[in-house]
Specification:
By secondary structure, the chain is α+β, with helices and mostly antiparallel strands. 44% of the residues lie in helices and 18% in strands. Strands 1-2-9-4-7-10 form a six-stranded antiparallel β-sheet. Strands 3-8-5-6 form a four-stranded antiparallel β-sheet, with no helix packed on it. Helix 5 crosses helix 7 and helix 5 runs parallel beside helix 8. The longest helix is centred in the C-terminal third of the chain and has 18 residues. The two termini are 21 Å apart.
Length: 278
């Protein structure tokens, strides 16, 4: 059975880290876990062996992996047991921790060494050497706090307030607020908003709305709501529209996902939470 260990990051990291968990998972029956599009970048430190991620711009195999925002599934090798730590990073603040704009990680997964340099290998080694979850979290938190405190560049990396507000409006409406209304609300033209928004997050406002609506549909499906109700409640034209969008974003039909992924997700949910990787 899968198990998750919840963690709350130190206060200075909370605007940048939306969620953090430790995980322990058996080999996945299907052999491949689909990392679905979401609103967060993902930082994973896998301790039992290198994590292999395919399906994005390039294949990566590393103990530490950072994944940017994407609109296609990341295919994660889950053919063996896994154990590690996963942090969900806000795209609006990720540049402070990662040293590169979230937009440059669009549709990419990269090894942590490409971001932290040689410190990444030392961090993984130290985390793997302790079986204590609190100690593992503390090591990763300290590494991120060091980057946050030690970079005078961070003050110049603030995302424009208009982009932050547009991001908030899109997520708050679960993707149902038209982009033209978002642009009007922040006082920018639609084209200018699109350029700045993509630079900051990696997605266009329309793509962000698409992901937000998809996340809403996922939550309802995991609650075992009927498909017709899911389609109506999330704003898809009908069940067929939902099915087409699901296949485009996950690479699988809804039937396949419900058969292969949902039981695994619900099994994990009977522990402290449900593991996923964006």
């Amino acid at each position: 059975m899968s198990a998750l260990v919840p963690h709350t990051v130190p206060a200075p990291l909370r605007p940048l880290v939306a969620a953090s968990v430790g995980y322990r998972a058996p080999a996945y029956p299907a052999g491949v876990h689909r990392g679905l599009p979401s609103r967060h970048l993902t930082l994973v430190v896998e301790l039992l062996g290198p994590l292999t991620v395919r399906g994005l711009a390039e294949t990566v195999r590393a103990h530490g992996v950072v994944g940017g925002l994407h609109t296609a599934p990341a295919l994660i090798d889950a053919s063996r047991p896994q154990e590690g730590v996963q942090y969900a990073l806000s795209p609006l603040g990720a540049r402070v921790l990662l040293g590169i704009p979230a937009g440059e990680l669009r549709d990419r997964a990269v090894g942590l060494e490409g971001i932290l340099g040689p410190d990444a290998a030392r961090l993984v080694e130290r985390m793997a050497a302790t079986p204590s979850w609190p100690a593992r979290f503390r090591l990763l938190d300290e590494a991120l706090l060091h980057r946050l405190a030690g970079s005078p560049r961070a003050a110049g990396w603030a995302v424009p307030a208009e982009v932050g507000e547009a991001w908030r409006l899109i997520l708050a409406s679960e993707g149902r607020l038209p982009v033209v209304d978002v642009a009007a609300a922040v006082g920018w033209g639609r084209r200018h908003l699109g350029e700045q928004f993509r630079r900051a997050t990696g997605l266009t406002p329309k793509e962000a709305a698409r992901v937000a609506r998809f996340e809403h549909a996922q939550r309802l499906l995991r609650a075992c709501r009927p498909l017709a109700d899911v389609a109506a409640e999330t704003g898809y034209a009908d069940q067929a529209h939902l099915a087409r969008e699901w296949r485009a974003l996950t690479g699988a039909s809804m039937t396949t996902w419900l058969r292969e992924e949902l039981p695994f997700v619900q099994d994990a949910a009977r522990s402290p939470g449900a593991r996923s990787m964006s």
